[in-house]
């Protein structure tokens, strides 16, 4: 069962990062070669249809991650700092919390205040994703 959840977690992480990478890098180049109006229409169309897929992948990523976390014995907050694994896990969780806070901050501006997204792109999310992957690999390496 553990192996299945590792595979689910890894596949969801790949899809999640690919989506963010596409939004940051591919669309950046598309705006250089196509009109802003055309790119905005395409982005709006794929964003509306992909929100449920993206949210599902993100939730599955979180749930599989918390399931995998249950295999490690963490009795108190200080147990995180007992090993390098725990330290990198703690950093990884802090980065995840940062991403969640920024997501809710952005959604608050868009949905509640009816303003434009203050973050405007997923560049911060892409950087956080890369750092999370580095921490995930460091957890098992060091």
Automatic annotation (TrEMBL):
<keyword id="KW-1133">Transmembrane helix</keyword>
<keyword id="KW-0812">Transmembrane</keyword>
<feature type="transmembrane region" description="Helical">
    <location>
        <begin position="6"/>
        <end position="30"/>
    </location>
</feature>
<feature type="transmembrane region" description="Helical">
    <location>
        <begin position="122"/>
        <end position="141"/>
    </location>
</feature>
<protein>
    <submittedName>
        <fullName>Trehalose-6-phosphate synthase</fullName>
    </submittedName>
</protein>
<keyword id="KW-0472">Membrane</keyword>
<feature type="transmembrane region" description="Helical">
    <location>
        <begin position="51"/>
        <end position="72"/>
    </location>
</feature>
<feature type="transmembrane region" description="Helical">
    <location>
        <begin position="84"/>
        <end position="110"/>
    </location>
</feature>
